[in-house]
Amino acid sequence: MSMMDKLKQMMKGHESQAGKGTDKAGDAVDDRTKGKYSGQVDTGQERLRNEFGGDQGTGQDRPPQP
User: Fold this and answer.
1) How many CB atoms lie within 10 A of CB 43?
2) pLDDT tens for residues 14-53?
3) Separation between Cα atoms, residue 54 and residue 42, nearest integer Å
């Protein structure tokens, strides 16, 4: 069993928490890098949400980022 399969099993039923964690981690990276890599961070967050679920913070209720 691959690591991704194990993570998916652990996240099953906890999609909202996974989404919150993804947002929190992305915000922390943006803070530490002063937004230098915000485009890459946003892409990574989107991919994680797609992979693990967690519809939290899909950008629909947030204004577009510069």
Assistant:
1) 12
2) 778 888 888 899 999 999 999 999 999 999 999 988 887 6
3) 15
Where does residue 47 rank: exposed (0-12), middle (13-18), buried (19+ CB within 10 A)? exposed
What's the confidence (pLDDT) of residue 60?
43
Q: What angle do CA 6, 9, 13 make, to 5 degrees?
A: 150
Q: What is the DSSP string of 12-24?
A: TT-HHHHHHHHHH
State both tokens at 20.
């919150």
Residue 55 has pLDDT above 90, yes or no: no
Per this entry, what is the length of the chain?
66
